Amino acid sequence: MQESSRNAGPGLRADARRNLDRILVAARAVFAEHGIDAPMATVARRAGVGVATLYRRFPTRDALVRAAFAQQMETCARALTEALADPDPWQGFQRLVETVCELQREEQGFPAAFVAAFPHSMMEHAQARGRVERDLMILVRRAQAAGALRADFHPSDLAVAVLAHCGLVTALPHDSAASRRLVAYLLQSFRAEAAHEALPPPSALSLRDLPMAADNSQRPRPSRA
Predict the structure, then answer these.
(1) Are residues 48 and 75 in the same domain?
(2) pLDDT confidence of 184, banded at 50, 70, 90?
(3) Nearest to residue 143, comparing CAs of 135, 151, 133?
(4) Which of 40, 49, 93, 200 has the maximum number of C-beta atoms within 10 A of its C-beta?
(5) Where in the numbering of this chain does the HTH tetR-type domain appear (predicted)?
(6) What is the percent of the chain where pLDDT is above 70?
């Protein structure tokens, strides 16, 4: 189901639905070109609608970012569910990392949107947030118990990996080879057989520390210990 259909509602007029489609297409293009801090007025101009029309539909930048990349966010949430269901915990973990990175690579505006909006698009309430964090911990512990994931892997390492890949694809949006190579390096370093030396202490960063607001123009900043 397309985002316009989800947002539209059964009573939305055809012209309003077309406006919504144009806004979401324009938002993805503008965010890809100028980042998610681009002025809302730029999105409105690209979509061919008035700024007031844009704000009626999306009163905040955060709401627009989430709507523009809702399909990708849903794919991330589904990937976590599928990873937990995989009988091979390492395969599940690996596929989750690869799916997130593939989405960051394929949609140029998505890397910054993912960092800005995740985990909030997947966890709108505290209960949902706790469930996602619990599921990630279960996945990590299962892979460690299977002897596949290094014992000193910490959940914050996943957040660090997401930020590292985000930086790469933002700087080199058309270099898919570099993206795939980085992901392969990261996954190899996570394997238990790669744990030849002790790592420094883990970061204080967690998934909930990834910037939660696209409408406050803040760049990613990890929390400090």
Answers:
(1) no
(2) very high
(3) 151
(4) 93
(5) 17-76
(6) 76
pLDDT at 214 over 80: no
Check residue 115 and give left, alpha or beta (phi > 0: left; psi -120 to 50: alpha).
alpha
CA-to-CA distance for 62 and 135, rounded, in angstroms?
25
Q: Of the residues 68, 91, 109, which one is the last residue of a structural domain? A: 68
- Strands (E) located in the chain: none
Q: 125: which residues sit within 8 A by CB, 6+ positions away?
A: none
- Evaluate whether residue 2 is within a structural domain: no
Which tokens is 22 given?
């144009």
What contacts 215, CB < 8 A, 6 or more positions away?
60, 61, 62, 63, 65
pLDDT of 119 strictly over 60: no
- Residue finishing a domain among 68, 89, 116: 68
pLDDT digits (tens, 9 = 90+) for 58-103: 998 888 988 888 888 888 889 999 999 999 999 999 999 999 899 8
Q: Is 191 helix (H, G, I), strand (E, B) or coil?
A: strand
| 221: in domain | no
Domain that holds residue 204: 70-209
